[in-house]
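Q: I'm writing up a methods section and want to include an example of the input and output format. Could you take the sequence below and give the corresponding predicted structure tokens, formatted cleanly so I can copy it straight into the document?
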Amino acid sequence: MDTMNIVCFGFGQVAKNFIKKINSENLKINLTVTSRKKSDKKNFNNLDYESFQFFEDSFDQKLIENLKSSDHVLVSIAPVNGEDIVIKSFKNIFDNSKIKWITYLSATSVYGNHNGNWVNENSKTNPTSTNGIDRLNAEKSWLNFAKKKNLPIQIFRLSGIYSNQNNILTRLKTGNAKIIDKKNQFFSRIHVEDIANILFKSLQNFKSKEIYNVSDDKPTSSEELILYGSKLLNIEKPNVVNLSTIENEMVKNFYKDSKKVNNKKMKEFFNYKLKYPTYVEGLDHILNNNI
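A: Here is the clean output for your methods example:
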């Protein structure tokens, strides 16, 4: 594979793990990322890269040159005021580009509440949260924009992300985990390393205008997850609290939705076997390697 010119709009845990995966395969890349911080030259995982400042209403003009020469673009920036700011700021730059791979990272919150039933990529999208509504609008913007400009786009709908650094075990150890009393409540999740691996797979196996659920094999309740985490750490389970007593709006919105996310399309198209097929393998690995 020739040297890849990659632009990451946003450089959070998914983008970093994706670049780390590419690096581990000894592929040559020129990396550009965006950040709210001042533009600078940086190093990540022994890779020198350029970081350009980007806000919803302004950006470092030097970013344009790098975007024009890019062939792979990963978009992980959340919508701002209900609008995708990458399209808003750079739609004219994409017009005459040589980009052959664009991935927009969305979220399974676009499905809304399905009362604990299974959802797949053809299921009704009826988001209940502001985040879900904005994500769905951004998806539609990207698909319409890509169709109009004949751009290659795929959308990954990510379930709840956990990692070696951010997971239920760390929340249990710091006392920040609570069991919410709500029956028939199912959530899906995915380890960040599996997301990176699937993104890497898609570099060679790409079909434009497609949407994929990125999730593990075992949707479960938060209570089941917390009980398993408590068992691993050999600590008492947290107290059970009633949802009506929760003041955090983000948490309350999170519990509005209950669904099981089907990942069959993702696994079959990318011919991918999950490294962490359930939270059991994921948390066991985290416990044995990090805590």
